[in-house]
Amino acid sequence: MRFLETSEVHGALLRLRKGGHSIHPSVKIDRNVRLRVSEKGRLTIEEGVHILQDSWIIVEEGDHLVLGQNVFISQHCTISGTVTIGRDSLIAGFVTIVDATHVFDDSTIPVNQQGGRKEPISIGEDVWIGTSSVILQGVNIGNHAVIGANSTVTKDIPPWAIAAGSPAKVLRYRKR
Ligand SMILES: CC(C)(COP(=O)(O)OP(=O)(O)OC[C@H]1O[C@@H](n2cnc3c(N)ncnc32)[C@H](O)[C@@H]1OP(=O)(O)O)[C@@H](O)C(=O)NCCC(=O)NCCS
Fold it and tell me: Measured from the CB, is residue 133 less than 6 Å from ligand 1?
């Protein structure tokens, strides 16, 4: 589904609700957001979520994608697969969060014939992910963490950490 105008957004969200997905009536979805949701996947969007223009939310068969209360997703983000984003988290523009990777163990056949692997991603509450960052499959980011701009997060990040770089490393911890 691609959303162009408010009435279309409204209709599309109604259709998703009828399909059994949980979309809170307060959610705000801007123009040109795409929600590609399989009938065999599950999408949960809680109260107060706002998704800015040109972002993509992709839910395939067997996935459960959850955007918790007051999650803010800025423009041009891609969020795909079994991904949970906890309440009050901020995702800056051009961030990619995808739970899938390609298998490339067999050197005798092309990578595109070897299939893929999915590992769920969990992002805690009150997390801020800086612009243009990439969060790889299987990563858990703890509550209250901050991820610097242009980071590639390949491993778990503890709660309250400020991490940045490619691969992302903890720079320090937020004051509590
Ligand atoms: C991660 C961040 C929050 C850290 O801010 P800070 O605490 O003020 O950190 P500093 O600027 O003091 O930097 C500390 C060190 O980390 C490095 N660093 C900071 N941000 C970095 C980043 N994104 N990637 C790699 N290294 C980074 C600095 O170069 C510095 O290194 P040094 O000690 O060798 O000089 C900030 O740099 C950042 O990336 N913010 C995201 C901004 C953004 O995405 N805005 C979009 C709109 S929401």
Answer: no
Instruction: Tell me the per-residue pLDDT of 125-146, one tens digit each, with 9 for 90 and over.
Output: 999 999 999 999 999 999 999 9
Annotated catalytic residue 102: yes
Asked whether the beta carbons of 126 and 143 are under 8 A apart, the reply is: yes
Quick one: average pLDDT of 34-50?
95
Residue nearest to atom 7 of ligand 1 (CA): 162
pLDDT surpasses 60 at 27: yes
pTM over 0.85: yes
Domain locations in the chain?
6-173
Q: Is 130 in the pocket of ligand 1 (CB under 6 A)?
A: yes
CB of 171 shorter than 6 A to ligand 1: yes
Report domain 6-173's class: mainly beta
Nearest CA to ligand 1 atom 32: 171
Chain centroid offset of residue 46 CA: 14
Strand-pair category, 121-123 with 140-141: parallel
